[in-house]
């Protein structure tokens, strides 16, 4: 059996998808309130874990178990196109799982626990018999936690020398994970036809594009309202105002999204989601100030 070219392996691991967990990890590091000076090796190792390892593992697992769906939706992908031949997609997923566990273990027990949860969710999301992605409610929740909440907590834990972050960090990370459920729903619009044909119950398939888009907008907006309230309650009115302004801009963009969700979901992912992740960083700075105080 031939071996895959490095370029095909890199495409399988999808570097473009690494940004969300790496950004969330950075937010967690900022939220710790501790300077990165002197901790760069740990920070870089954590970023490597969040994106090129754990997230990349989830992409390899998903593409292996979705190879029949991708043959319909995106036949040019590495596995259905044959550029990742035989069972190499599975072997790469297993190897990246092992590498992720090894690095996480070196970063401390809290980081190891977070990485282990993320990896378990990655396999449960795609692999039978559980295959969480068959249900858009459960599947999107698993991805949202893996891409936002767990990397955020991991970033804070790495900066704290492996200690458990405080409850405020868990609260804000959890809220942004809830909001990411909506982002995942919008991402599902690109594969509606293949999902429908292969029985994948994404929310656009289950609810129809219009209702799914409305659910996504509520899922993104309401957690941010809670973030604004918590930041104000914790004595950060300036940060709360900035997050509220970013949310107001998102609401304006959502109105345009809802007018034609199937056509405009990619556009919203490039505009409204950018404002969402900026709000994450603003919230992280607020938590960092609290930690310093």
Structural notes for this entry:
By secondary structure, the chain is mostly helical. The longest helix has 32 residues. α8 packs antiparallel against α13.
Which characteristics define this entry?
mainly alpha; Farnesyl Diphosphate Synthase; 13 helices
**Oligomer classification:** single chain
Rg for CA atoms: 19 Å
CATH architecture: Orthogonal Bundle
What is the straight-line distance between the termini?
A: 60 Å
What ranges have pLDDT less than 50 throughout 5 or more consecutive residues?
none
CATH topology: Farnesyl Diphosphate Synthase
Outline type: globular
| Mean pLDDT, all residues | 93
Instruction: Give the biggest sheet.
Output: none
Fraction of helical residues: over 70%
Layout of secondary structure:
Elements (H helix, E strand, L loop, with lengths): L5 H8 L5 H13 L8 H26 L1 H7 L14 H19 L2 H18 L9 H24 L7 H21 L4 H7 L4 H5 L1 H25 L3 H23 L1 H32 L1
Short description:
This protein is mostly helical and 293 residues long. The chain contains 13 helices and no strands. The chain has one domain: Farnesyl Diphosphate Synthase, CATH 1.10.600.
